Amino acid sequence: MDNSELPERVLCRVSESTPSQRGGQPCSDVSHPPRAPWPWCCSPRIDPISTRGSAMLRRFAPAAGAVALVLLAGCQPAPAVTPTEQTAVATGPAPSPSFECTPEFAGNPGVDSSPRPCSAAQHDAMKKKDALYAEAEAVYRRFHAADEALARGDRNAEVRVRQLAVPEVADATIAHYRETALDGLGVRAGSFKIAWIQRVPTSSNESDIALGSCTDATSTITTQDGKDVGHGRILVKRVDFRRENGSLRVFRAGFKEVSSCQ
Fold this sequence. Notes:
This protein is an alpha+beta fold and 262 residues long. 31% of the residues lie in helices and 22% in strands. A four-stranded antiparallel β-sheet has the order 4-5-8-9. A three-stranded antiparallel β-sheet has the order 3-6-7. 17% of the residues are buried.
């Protein structure tokens, strides 16, 4: 092909054999390409050159072709960069924490106290119930101490009884000891010893929680009109609690006499 018949933009047409790696259109599709860097050329100042009827191009065509080849050689794709090897890290979901729950009445005779797998919600519920039992035991021990003080004739303990029990229970307890005092009955020496406290099911839907206990008062001496007439008894008690006005209070209490706390 004679150089005089070469189409316009021949130098840029040479670069059409190189894939357009960075976008843009081939020079043959641009009627009047501006003086701007071509997306696929190495030199930022390569311009399309008209060759129709150009004697100068015929003179320098071999050199121009060589330049184009050099430019093409410089535009080869860069070798792929191998990414640095990294230690594989597991991306799966984190394992769920495991929980264990103990039965509500663990420690009672005949109850399997072995921990068992449970859900997070069940574990939270167990912790709340444990806290409620602990609160009930603290209330019961204070009520027990006030009850013993009344049995020994301490009328100041009536205030504590009213703070720890619902009005019906407080009134009945105070009335009982006032009557025994009128009968000349009293207690001296020894103590009302709590042998054990354990969790028990509530006896009423109105109760929040319940405890059982055994009180051994056999070390005390019962008196009447100042004379010793006997010893205290051993009683198994059942006490229900209910929250009223923000405080856990003794809601119901019952007892029976037994021969031993064992």
